[in-house]
Specification:
The chain is globular. It contains 10 helices and 8 strands. The two termini are 14 Å apart. Strands 1, 2, 3, 4, 5, 6, 7 and 8 form an 8-stranded mixed beta sheet that branches. By secondary structure, the protein is of the alpha/beta class. α1 runs parallel beside α2, α4 crosses α5 and α5 packs across α6. The chain has a domain of 59 residues: DNA polymerase, domain 1 (Orthogonal Bundle), CATH 1.10.150.
Length: 281
Amino acid sequence: MRIDLHTHSSASDGTDTPGDLVREAAAAGLDVVALTDHDAMSGWAEAQRAADEAGITLVPGLEISTTFRHRGVHLLGYLPDPAYPPLVAVLDRILAGRTARTPAMVAALQARGIAITEDDVRREAGGSVAAGRPHVADALVRMGIVADRTEAFHVLLNPGRPGYVDRYAVPLEEMIPILAAAGGVAVIAHPWGRSGGSVLDEAALASLKELGLAGIEVDHQDHSPAFRARLRSIATDLDLVVTGSSDHHGLGKVGHDLGVNTTDPEQYERLLSLAGRPLGG
């Protein structure tokens, strides 16, 4: 069984529709795929229809923007109740922050002499629930300012760069209990990718487990072999679920092909058990 538990569609910042993403997952030989769009659950219904047609198991999920010790941390939530009021309220606030940030980013880039407009960004956002930095990056690529999203972030859109504007993200210590109360399973995405390793050490992960953290994403393209080995050891010591995934964004992220990393079936079964679901459910 081949299982990929972290992918994105055009409902957030991927380039494939939810249905196309699921069909591509099936064509790539996956048996299980999780749709984990940023702060959004709007792609679930379309993805489920495609999964039913393709004979592949869909795990509904999302990737939530949080902060921990003044650092951004992405939290994967699997199988929550999408109508749970506190979860809906948090996501609405996060998405409002995304929406409000776009004009500020555009203005900051214009101040640097880049002739980008809000309409340019909206065209790239397409069916996304809210425009975000990746859509600004895509607009810059289309304009020929940068070669790809990676360059756009590195040169213009990361913290400390000319086009970066901060936005609201929920504290991780608040989000994990909300997700658990919604019946979901909380897994930290790429914990040692980017700058996460500076705050998400074993002691921090142990404290987060006490709040309901269920697992960590170990096998990810942002993790070196040494990081993966150490994280796997920490997960064993803390009895956390270990996941692996692609973090696929379609054409929006190079080197993250569907199934490039996968989750062990026994770990997947643990995740489903924590959500109160039978294997394959």
